[in-house]
Design a protein that fits this description.
CATH topology of one domain: Rossmann fold
CATH class of one domain: Alpha Beta
Structural class: alpha/beta
Length: 202
Amino acid sequence: MTLRVGIYLYPDVEVLDFAGPYEVFSTASRVARRLDAGCAEPFAVSLVAATRGGVRARGGLTVLPDASFLDAGHLDVLLVPGGVHGPELDRPEVIGWLARAAADARLVASVCTGAFLLARAGLLTGLEVTTHWEDCADLQCAFPDLRVRDGVRWVEHDRVLTSAGISAGIDMSLRMVARLAGEELAERTARQMDYSWRARPG
């Protein structure tokens, strides 16, 4: 079965926060097909934004999303990257969509300051979480019911994962591949990417 992975895009999103996980899931599918040409691709990755128009990411990169809130459909994996997240916290349509998309997802994850958006959507209540080291204190202050950890690559629960900053999202995404499609595929994906995977969160 092919699992649908949706990565949320918004203005001034951090490029590696979304591009790193995108590369992990798309490479995992490519590697899986190489191992077994007859198998279904394990992941279909799409970039989802509020509307279909181009999104200007941090550094000036303009990205065209694959889907909007209206037509994204069911997601098995919802991933929210970090970036200039402040304005997103005050957009009810964003927070509402995240809550709805997460309701039926097998896994929900954030990279970096994407944790603020998941927390605002009520998806991290009472959990141990992490974010970029610069933002741990702010996340704890804004959402005192959370238990915010510093110094780890990611924090994992049954359905929810949060990662530290930027490149840590690659490690967390490889962990999600391991959970959803097996450790061997995750290891082969990291090898294909020529990436030294930190396979343990500490």
